[in-house]
Design a protein that fits this description.
Helix content of chain B: 25-40%
Bound molecules: adenosine-5'-triphosphate, magnesium ion
Number of domains of chain B: 1
Largest sheet of chain B: 6 strands, mixed
Number of domains of chain A: 2
Order of helices and strands of chain B: HHEEEHEEHEHHHHEHEHEEHH
Shape of chain B: globular
Number of strands of chain A: 0
Oligomer: heterodimer
Shape of chain A: flat
Strand content of chain A: under 5%
CATH class of chain B: Alpha Beta
CATH superfamily of chain B: P-loop containing nucleotide triphosphate hydrolases
Structural class of chain A: mainly alpha
Number of helices of chain B: 12
CATH architecture of chain B: 3-Layer(aba) Sandwich
Distance between the termini of chain A: 33 Å
Chain lengths: 264, 285
């Protein structure tokens, strides 16, 4: 009996140690890169870096103001269009839609989601850049919003579906209309999912963000799997993180937790 | 033991015989006032289908005003299904079909605006389902969406509802805390208070005490009895003692049919149907 227990404990300890080491290795790569960046780059960080335009190649000084401002603009424009459209489409999918039409929308959203960003870039270029005769934040923002819509829609749908039926029925039974129920109970409940679910899933008690994160994670992992098989897979990979953040911001889920922290 | 095939055969004729719609059931004859005139809610020949599954067979039943009616029967016999049709909450399920007529104060509930039916016919569910909001907001939710806040202060409504649900003393110091900070029994009473806040004329309760301890259960039972003069109550329960304690009349369901609906005393002491007796005495179900 004790021999068996010893063996079981040994296996347990070995596995714990192994997984711990692997986790440490994973994180350490990130830290090495960060440390390297800070070590070499920190001295160049000053006010100019944030406020000045880049100097021509070879010259010292200058900053990245245009890139910072441009990113902000692009993200802002993308959020203005992509988030509301995706959000309401997600509400439709989860709450209103019929079976067939929803299937179609879901399929299209997933398809759009798997389109390499270069293709979307070319699309924006053809539709916006060429007729307007110059690159613009608008074109960039539109391209990004096109990527944002399917992700926001699908993750919104997932959030809403995770809200238990009983919550909907509670509101409807008080005489709420369907829209009122969605706007005043279901969406807030999706945001507070961890709180009303904490009894059943105590590990989510403290980490609300994880609850918000989970359904998206599911979608995204599925998507990455697809992306790996097409040429632009790694390209998609690199953009998914910021997109996820945006998708979350759209639901008011707050900031995205660090990738490693929330993965369960 | 009653064999299934035997029971199946036996029901249809009996159901019609006991349908209060056609003949006076023992309940109605017992009523002090003219029984049919005070029927607050009446179901006539209700059939209900979940997709291809026929869940309710020709159920006809009357609920008298200011009375408590208990629905009993083995698991899966359609009690919840029936209850959920009374305030049209089953309409939210896809692929369902309701036939027959349900009337509230003599008017078909299908002719009402759906939100009005649900406001007038309140519902408390088996598991407490407070909203992820504060206690105060939970209670005020119904009055707010129904535009009932004009003239009365929100605080007043909240206090009154909580008092009616016997929760005021426990909750008055944490009105603005999350409803999830309450215990299960308190949450259930909060849900009752929430339903009461819109002044429903009928209150439907689907096994409201199934998750509660005896003390909380006793409180809710007291509450039901005291609510009687303000509304008509229909309660689904698996607890025979509970039915015996709170209900004026009791309906026994079996396999989607209403077998017998009579004064509670009659059902428990002298049931007219063999199936009822078997169930009450614990011989099946
Ligand atoms: N949403 C649904 N879809 C399909 N069938 C359902 C659905 N809800 C209930 N049923 C079926 O209808 C029948 C009656 O169910 P119902 O929930 O009304 O039983 P009940 O009497 O309330 O049982 P319990 O005492 O266990 O709550 C059951 O056979 C059940 O399988
Ligand atoms: Mg039930």
């Amino acid at each position: 009996m004790t021999g068996r227990n010893k063996y079981r404990n040994a296996v347990n300890n070995v596995m714990l140690t192994l997984s711990g080491i692997c986790a440490a290795v994973t994180v350490s790569m990130l830290f090495v890169i960060l440390a390297y960046l800070v070590y070499n780059g920190f001295s160049s960080l000053n006010l100019d870096f944030f406020t000045q335009l880049p100097k021509p190649t070879g010259q010292v000084g200058g900053g990245m103001a245009n890139a910072i401002l441009g990113s902000a603009q692009v993200v802002l424009i993308a959020s203005c269009f992509g988030l509301p459209i995706g959000f309401f489409a997600g509400i439709y999918l989860a709450e209103f839609g019929g079976k067939k039409f929803c299937m179609l929308v879901r399929y299209m959203a997933d398809l759009l989601n798997g389109v390499p960003s270069i293709v979307i870039g070319i699309f924006a270029w053809t539709v916006l850049v060429v007729p307007m005769h110059h690159f613009s934040a608008l074109a960039g923002g539109m391209a990004l919003s096109l990527m944002l819509i399917p992700i926001t829609a699908r993750s919104t749908e997932q959030f809403l579906l995770e809200v238990p039926r009983s919550m909907r029925e509670g509101a409807l039974a008080l005489g709420a209309t369907k829209w009122k129920t969605i706007a005043t109970v279901i969406v807030p409940a999706a945001r507070h999912h961890d709180r009303h679910d904490s009894g059943r899933r105590p590990h989510l008690r403290r980490d609300g963000a994880a609850a918000v994160y989970r359904p998206q994670q599911r979608i995204l992992e599925h998507r990455i799997f697809l992306a790996d098989r097409n040429a632009a897979g790694d390209d998609f990979h690199s953009r998914r993180c910021s997109l996820r953040r945006l998708a979350q911001a759209g639901l008011g889920g707050g900031t995205c937790p660090a990738d490693d922290g929330a993965r369960r | 033991m009653v064999s299934t095939s035997e029971t199946k055969m036996a029901y249809p004729p009996e159901t019609t015989a006991y349908a209060p719609e056609n003949k006076m059931s023992p309940t109605s004859t017992e009523g002090t006032k003219s029984a049919t005139a005070t029927a607050k809610l009446r179901a006539a020949n209700v059939n209900f289908h979940y997709g291809s599954f026929h869940a309710l067979h020709d159920v006809s039943m009357e609920f008298q005003e200011n009375k408590v009616t208990a629905l009993i029967g083995p698991s899966g016999c359609g009690k919840s299904t029936f209850l959920r049709n009374l305030n049209r909450i089953n309409e939210t399920l896809r692929d369902t079909r309701l036939e027959g007529e349900i009337t509230l104060d003599g008017q078909n509930i299908m002719d009402f605006d759906i939100t009005e039916v649900r406001r007038r016919v309140g519902m408390v569910f088996q598991r407490p389902n407070p909203f992820p909001k504060s206690i105060f907001e939970n209670i005020i939710y119904g009055p707010k969406i129904n535009g009932m806040l004009k003239g009365t202060s929100a605080a007043e409504i909240v206090e009154k509802s909580l008092r009616r649900a016997a929760l005021w003393e426990e909750a008055k110091d944490k009105l603005h805390e999350s409803a999830y900070a309450l215990s299960g029994g308190q949450q259930q009473r909060l849900c009752i208070a929430r339903a009461l806040a819109v002044n429903p004329e009928v209150l439907l309760l689907d096994e409201p005490c199934s998750a509660l301890d005896p003390i909380a259960t006793a409180k809710i039972e007291d509450l039901l009895v005291s609510l009687k003069d303000q509304c008509t109550i229909v309660i689904v329960t698996h607890n025979m003692q509970q039915a015996a304690r709170v209900a004026d009349t009791t309906g026994f369901f079996l396999m989607g049919r209403l077998i017998e609906h009579a004064k509670t005393d009659m059902i428990f002491k002298n049931p007219a149907c063999k199936e009822t007796e078997d169930y009450i005495t614990g011989r099946f179900g």
